[in-house]
Amino acid sequence: MPDPFLEARAFLAGLDPDWARHVEAVGPCLHQAKPAREPCEALVRAIAYQQLHARAGDAILGRFLGLYGQTFPSPEQILATDFEPLRACGFSAGKIATLRGIAEATLSGVVPDYQAARAMDDEALIERLTRLRGIGRWTVEMLLIYSLERLDILPADDFGVREGYRRLKGLEQRPTRRQMIEISLSLRPHRTVAAWYLWRVPAR
Asked: Does the active-site annotation cover 158?
């Protein structure tokens, strides 16, 4: 089976010796998008993981899906769910308000369906969805990467991306968001694959 990220890997490995060593050590990019997910589902899943380690996010999401027989709920089902069961899943009060806001915005059309989102420009979708309570740029970038299969997104706010770059380059301090945006310009048009590799820079 051909490697869909072969060009991106070659591009990154050609940037400098640090990237070349890291790409060689990690091997092929195994990034997998989930293009069947509607934006509502993608946003809710991202909220479950927001500011948490993956294991904690997995646990919260598992309990949340358990409320609905392990199938992802409709916006109507989310709105019909009382506060306490959602709180028992591990969501904070703020995140519960965000979940309900996403559901309401989906029903009103502010959150577009999958096909409409696919047709939108990255920045236009970010600008539209970050108007919602609790939805920041990182959350929409996860939607762009994993649901909409965009291949030139590098979440500059992401701790793992910034820490990965610090380790890759042997820096004392993690780059700031602004610095990471500047750094990412040299990674175009393969910023999604670059983020995947930065998430995998080992601790030294």
From this structure: yes
